[in-house]
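Example 3.2
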Amino acid sequence: MTIDQRLDGLSRQWMEAERRGDAEALDALAVPDFTLVGPLGFILNKDQWLARYRGGGMVTHEMSWAEVTVREYGDTAVAIGVLAQRAAFQGTPADGRFRVTQISVRVGDRRLLAGLHYSPIAAPPARP
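Structure, written as tokens:
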């Protein structure tokens, strides 16, 4: 199985768990020191990330992951892709398209999420 296939499986499990709001499944998919950097620059540790689902504050209606490129460095893989979501946090829309960097590590025979970094997608600044 190639790294792309292994990461595709991890990504499908991650997105499905987010759509279901399944904090236990997300917990099992991430390393203990998992970190998320949100699209506005905020940082969530694993407990904070999971609490958004446990409390029902984060609701994901739709999510897709496309245009993915993968690089592997030993037990670590870096996937960069476009994530599109229709979601709400505490009733406030959190819809959008984001460039996401997904960092995963091999733990035994599994791949686990070590980090996610969301960035807004915008055109490069104009040159002066």
